[in-house]
Amino acid sequence: MIMGFADPFDTLLNLQRSLDATLANDWLQDLTASRGPFPPINIFQQGDDILAIVELAGIKKDDLQIQAKENSIRIFGRKTVEYPGEVSLHRQERVSGEFDRTMSFPVQIEPDGIKAEYRDGILALFLPRAESDKPRTIKIA
Fold this sequence. Notes:
This protein has 141 residues and is mainly β. The chain has a domain at 39-81 and 96-131: Immunoglobulin-like (Sandwich), CATH 2.60.40. It contains one helix and seven strands; from the N terminus they run αβββββββ. The strands form two sheets. Strands 1-2-7-6 form a four-stranded antiparallel beta sheet, with no helix packed on it.
């Protein structure tokens, strides 16, 4: 007796549904809900200047470095997660390790005028636009 499938596309569709259901179940995964770049950053313009708000929860100020060059900012450092004494880890969603993130801007930044404030795991970077990059008003004679 020869057995065949009524419709091979139905078989493939059922297989795809089974795979999707398996991947949708997070019981065996050790991923966090956020899968984007780390650290998360919001950047917006305030007048001529740029303001960047960076979430760095659990990172010590001494483990954080910021560099500025022309039209970019680099934020890098290390996040450590420590556990007291002998523990048995059942689920790990708090990530640790080194991170390195660079953002480029459409304007030149004045590196000497940058101000950084770090409080409660939030870094605020005030990035002034370089005077040489600001538009000039030309008087017509």
